[in-house]
Design a protein that fits this description.
By secondary structure, the protein is of the alpha+beta class. It contains two helices and five strands. Strand 2 and strand 3 form a beta hairpin.
Amino acid sequence: MSNCTRFFISGRVQDVWYRAATQQKALSLGITGYAKNLPDGRVEVLACGKHDSVAELEQWLWQGSPHSEVENIDVNRVDDNAPNSFEKR
């Protein structure tokens, strides 16, 4: 069974390749879900996969892309249907 977690990342995370870097990291960990920009400047990430992989992605989200500056991450465990891939929306 997949563990799904929704993250809301704030800081300098738009227009700095944060979503693309997140997609690349998630795919390398075997995680499905998505990363999308929100109108308020945050990025939303849904990550579904093995608990250890999602935990590793959660730690990586604090680093993000080279030009990002993460200030805060809100974490919500969710009961969601795991998608088949990881999308950048």
